[in-house]
Write a sequence for this structure.
């Protein structure tokens, strides 16, 4: 999809959201007016108006893709969200539940009866049921499990057994397999008998009688080669393949590097157990990106923007508490130099600049490092070179920008020594930011923690305290 198409699609979804909001508002206004009018057959009129608005809303929702309905549900406050959710046709519930965020999904599931949840889940494929299973009540999962065939039960067990961030959690079981000893004509006849091909089918998987993967046959080769040729003659024996236990990050990198649309997943013996598609990988990348964005600010993923004040407040408490402690430490650092500040008031006006630029520089380093770690580009052999590079960048930035701010400080307060102290403090604090900007994510990673979680809060705290101490300390030594 081109960039222009993406913009148009986004505008279309936004337009749909505004139309739904307008219809909900119209429904409330009309309902209010009818309810307060003194007229005969009041209940009949109110019922007719209600049905008219409901029909209009349902018609609008039916025309939308499940992903667009999910977007609208996420953008509505809880009351309106549930009102719209009740108007969605039951046979689309499962698809929409898969598309919404975890937090919004919880609000929708809490509003559904167990029978509704079972009916919605039964319509999904086994890999999709596995994605939904962690959010469903246990009795619902048991009822769904009983409704599946023996093969589907085994697939569901397998899908639910893999860790959340593994390839096994991303794979699906819908794929087309063929033998290597048949002709392309036989393959074509087989494909024509299918009702439809699984989504993102760009290649067929070639297996032997024991379902061991022998290679892949791109659909394009089926179409352009002589129909009398054997599959073995035109297939690709060497192809990118994954194991269920591999990290999903590795699969995402491979899909990007090799521009894959689908790829086989095999077990330790080489038996084909499923496939991974670009759609699943893109969903994973988006979720990880959202999670990292929140984690950098010290927020847990999954907060619904319209969740209750209590839930949202609790989600933010941990790192606010950490920030409060670090702010107290910074205030104590300032307190040590109260005498210096009293003698030279300019220090109070300039020290936030030193701390602020250090925090920004540290966040730049952390953002770059966390991204590189997610791509698997950071290891023990290059960590020292990376640290040296970041220190060199900070030294250069400190000298350049420190000189500029020092010059302005000299002009503003008519003190060359103050300008020199300003330059030195900015340079040193930027180097502190670089040091901890590299050290914090690597330390968190070695401790088995997500390097993105809280890194921004920690680096800001360190550069604030460090910046205050360096600037006020230098000023005390050379100016007071």
């Amino acid at each position: 999809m081109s960039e222009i198409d993406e913009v148009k699609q986004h505008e279309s979804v936004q337009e749909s959201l505004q139309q739904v909001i307008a219809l909900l508002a119209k429904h409330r206004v009309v309902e209010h007016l009818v309810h307060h009018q003194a007229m005969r057959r009041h209940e009949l009129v109110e019922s007719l108006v209600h049905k008219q608005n409901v029909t209009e809303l349902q018609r609008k929702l039916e025309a939308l893709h499940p992903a667009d309905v999910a977007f609208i549900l996420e953008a509505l406050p809880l009351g309106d969200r549930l009102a719209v959710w009740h108007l969605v046709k039951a046979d689309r519930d499962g698809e929409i539940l898969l598309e919404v965020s975890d937090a919004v999904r919880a609000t929708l599931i809490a509003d559904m009866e167990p029978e509704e949840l079972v009916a919605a889940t039964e319509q999904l494929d086994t890999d999709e049921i596995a994605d939904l299973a962690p959010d469903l009540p246990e009795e619902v999962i048991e009822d769904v499990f009983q409704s599946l065939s023996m093969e589907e039960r085994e697939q569901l067990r397998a899908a639910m057994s893999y860790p959340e961030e593994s390839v096994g959690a991303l794979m699906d079981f819908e794929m087309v397999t063929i033998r290597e000893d048949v002709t392309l004509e036989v393959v074509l006849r087989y494909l024509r008998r299918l009702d439809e091909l699984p989504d993102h089918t760009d290649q067929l998987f070639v297996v032997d009688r024991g379902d061991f993967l022998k290679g892949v046959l791109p659909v394009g080769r089926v179409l352009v080669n002589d129909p009398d040729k054997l599959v073995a003659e035109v297939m690709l024996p060497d192809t990118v393949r994954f194991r269920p236990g591999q990290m999903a990050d590795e699969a995402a990198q491979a899909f990007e590097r090799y521009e894959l649309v689908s790829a086989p997943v095999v077990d330790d013996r080489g038996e084909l157990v499923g496939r991974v598609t670009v759609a699943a990988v893109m969903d994973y990348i988006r979720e990880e990106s959202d999670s990292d964005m929140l984690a950098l600010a010290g927020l847990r993923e999954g907060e619904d923007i319209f969740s209750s004040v209590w839930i949202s407040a609790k989600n933010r408490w941990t790192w606010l508490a950490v920030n409060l402690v670090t702010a107290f430490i910074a205030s104590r650092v300032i307190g040590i130099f109260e005498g210096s500040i009293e003698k030279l008031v300019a220090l109070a006006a300039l020290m936030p600049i030193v701390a602020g630029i250090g925090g920004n520089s540290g966040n730049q380093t952390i953002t770059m490092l966390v991204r590189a770690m997610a791509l698997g580009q950071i290891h023990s052999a290059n960590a020292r070179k990376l640290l040296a590079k970041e220190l060199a960048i900070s030294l250069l930035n400190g000298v350049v920008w420190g000189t500029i701010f020092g010059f302005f400080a000299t002009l503003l307060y008519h003190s060359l020594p103050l300008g020199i102290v300003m330059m030195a403090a900015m340079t040193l604090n930027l180097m502190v930011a670089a040091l901890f900007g590299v050290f914090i994510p690597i330390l968190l990673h070695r401790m088995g923690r997500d390097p993105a979680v809280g890194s921004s809060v920690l680096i800001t705290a360190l550069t604030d305290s460090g910046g205050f101490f360096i600037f006020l300390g230098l000023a005390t030594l050379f100016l007071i």
Notes: The mean pLDDT is 87. Strands lie at 177-178, 203-207, 213-218, 262-266, 272-277.
